[in-house]
Amino acid sequence: MILITNAVTLVFIIYIAAKGLCHAKQDIEDLRRGCRLEGLHPLLIVTYKNIMVFADKITVPHGERVALRCRELGRYKLIGDSVLHCRNSVWNGTLPTCIPTTAISNYTEDVPPTILFGLPAGSAAVDPSGALAVFPGSILHLECLFARKLGNPEWTWTSTFRQYLTGWAIAASERDWKYRLSIYYAKAQDSGIYTCSTPRGLTNSIRVRVLDVHCPSLPTLTPPLIGKIEGARMGQSATFECPEGHRLEGVSSMTCQYNGQWSAKVPQCVAILCPEVKPANVKLQLLEHNNSYGGRVVFACMWGHRLSGAQSIRCDGDGTWNGTMPTCSEITCAPPSAPRSGQIVEHERPSGKKRGRGHKVGALVRFACLPGHQLLGEASIICTENGTWSHQPPVCEVRCPYPGDPPHGRIAPLKFWYKPGDNIQVTCSPGYVTPFEPVKKPTCRENGIWSGPPPPCRSYRDV
Ligand SMILES: *[C@@H]1O[C@H](CO)[C@@H](O)[C@H](O)[C@H]1NC(C)=O
Ligand SMILES: *[C@@H]1O[C@H](CO)[C@@H](O)[C@H](O)[C@H]1NC(C)=O
Ligand SMILES: *[C@@H]1O[C@H](CO)[C@@H](O)[C@H](O)[C@H]1NC(C)=O
Ligand SMILES: *[C@@H]1O[C@H](CO)[C@@H](O)[C@H](O)[C@H]1NC(C)=O
Ligand SMILES: *[C@@H]1O[C@H](CO)[C@@H](O)[C@H](O)[C@H]1NC(C)=O
Questions:
Q1: What is the pLDDT of residue 7?
Q2: What's the chain's Rg over C-alpha atoms?
Q3: What pLDDT was estimated at residue 220?
Q4: Which superfamily is assigned to 8-99 in CATH?
Q5: CA of 314 to the centre of ligand 4 (A)
Q6: Does CATH place domain 401-463 in 3.30.70.20?
Q7: CA distance 310 to 290
Q8: Do domains 114-210 and 226-271 have the same CATH topology?
Q9: What is the DSSP letter of 291?
Q10: CATH number of 226-271: 3.30.390.10, 3.40.630.30, 2.10.70.10, 3.40.50.300?
């Protein structure tokens, strides 16, 4: 359907399109002598040259016709003419209006009866003037809706071709309100006006035209479009759908109209694509980028950076990602503290002045202890990718250093470091002795200083 608000322009465009541009001067003259349609009943559908015009004011050129019908065929009765002909700014015909019928008024006696139609076999289509175009061979039920307790309505028809079966419907759910006329295997001669009259003489009519109309057969559908095609006879329809991952562009169903034209064009299936993902920051990298339906984008951060947010997002059926892009932030390790009685002797500069005092991944920090202290743990530690140091900072413990062997002697035990309270003793080479007996052993004191030097070894001869 086409929705146009500037109806004058539209009508003129349709008119020119239909006639061609060669007589533009005449066309403008025809429009000047045109007729206006305004203040129409809201339920009226106006059709001009097979196009429905949705507007409350329309100007139609001189010599042209419009067709009018009520919405919900049969539930409203059209009073007036269903085709209007414009002659010199005057409509030849009575502007129609729509009045409710029994189905709308809850079956009161003071309104015309509703006429509905059903097709147990065959097909039909409604034309712009409200006539029912029926494909030959169809079985058509015309249902006059009336409260049975108020009496029997009556069907009459203009066709002289044959008599028709009329009477209350049989099914329990219908027999008290549907007074039916059946046309079996419709033929061209069944065309005519069928009128239902109530006991009070109120009437409603339906125009039936039996027409052998076909629409062009539909082309072979290009995959992946899936179609269910009933047929190409007037009133038949085709429905369409697309497989998952595709979006239907166009209508999902179309019918073959009274005029042998399909109501719409065959739709297309368009693959669903999500917008491409383009990280603004070089630190964010894409390990995978697939923006078709069901595809994923997988993110990673440059080395030394941490991802915050979704590691992957998925392209959903509505063409949007199921999440937003993550961000990357630099991983840093908090500055380690220097051990007591020790210090940091070397470290790489903390990263980025603004970002403060953290150390980048891979940064190395080296420690040393004051003299008289032993370093326990790792002398150097590295900032790892999870923002923690490879090891705890070391500790510096008070220790006495190896004091050195005295001349002609050896100390025992032999170590690099001695704990406070440890003693050493001196063993002299053959021919040498320590001066005093018993020997006073040096002790490592709490401050990391030996209580005395190792006793010297002296020659026997000198003792
Ligand atoms: C105008 O309408 C009348 C009856 O409604 C009809 O007989 C007549 O032919 C119409 N004139 C034109 C020019 O269409
Ligand atoms: C319709 O009419 C019936 C009786 O005729 C009444 O019981 C019912 O309530 C009415 N319904 C409405 C919606 O007016
Ligand atoms: C993208 O993802 C879809 C759905 O998972 C898959 O069918 C398709 O093969 C993928 N395309 C590529 C290029 O990997
Ligand atoms: C989005 O899709 C990804 C990949 O399938 C999934 O891991 C993630 O949990 C989804 N996110 C949400 C918010 O559903
Ligand atoms: C840091 O990473 C190492 C491996 O690189 C792992 O053994 C350790 O458990 C991680 N620590 C934390 C706090 O995640």
A1: 53
A2: 51
A3: 86
A4: Complement Module, domain 1 (2.10.70.10)
A5: 6
A6: no
A7: 16
A8: no
A9: -
A10: 2.10.70.10
- The pLDDT assigned to 206 comes to 96
Any idea which residue has 């059209």 for tokens?
78
Give the position, in ligand 1's atom list, of the atom nearest the Cα of 87.
Answer: 13
Handedness of CA 81, 82, 88, 90 (dihedral sign): positive
CA atoms of 325 and 278, how far apart (whole Å): 9
What does the pLDDT read at residue 2?
41
Q: Which residues line ligand 1 (CB under 6 A)?
A: 85, 87, 92-93
Token look-up 């001669």 returns: 189
Helices (H) and strands (E) in the chain, counts: 3, 41
Domain 284-330, CATH 2.10.70.10 — does that match?
A: yes
Going by C-beta distance under 8 Å and a sequence separation of 6 or more, which residues neighbour residue 437?
Answer: none
Domain range 114-210, CATH architecture: Sandwich (2.60)
Question: What's the pLDDT score for residue 183?
Answer: 97
| CA distance linking residue 451 with residue 126, whole number of Å | 120
- Assess whether the C-beta atom of 296 lies below 6 angstroms from ligand 4: yes
Site residues for ligand 3, CB cut-off 6 Å = 290, 292, 294-295
Q: Give distance in angstroms: CA of 69 to centre of ligand 2.
A: 28
- By alpha-carbon position, which residue is closest to atom 4 of ligand 1? 93
Looking at residue 353, its pLDDT comes to 47
Whether the CB-CB separation of 147 and 176 falls below 8 Å is answered with: yes
Is the pTM higher than 0.70? The answer reads: no
Nearest to 299 by CA among 288, 395, 291, 132: 288
Residues of the chain with confidence (pLDDT) below 50: 1-5, 352-354
Please choose, from the candidates 431, 229, 231, the residue with its C-alpha nearest in 3D space to the C-alpha of residue 240: 229
> For residue 15, is it left (φ>0), alpha (ψ between -120 and 50) or beta?
alpha
Burial of 438 (0-12, 13-18, 19+ CB in 10 A): exposed
400 is written with which tokens?
A: 């006495």
Domain limits, the chain: 8-99, 114-210, 226-271, 284-330, 332-398, 401-463
Residue 308 tokens, joined? 């915050």
CATH 3.30.1540.20 fits 332-398, yes or no: no
| Residue 328 near ligand 4, beta carbon < 6 Å | no
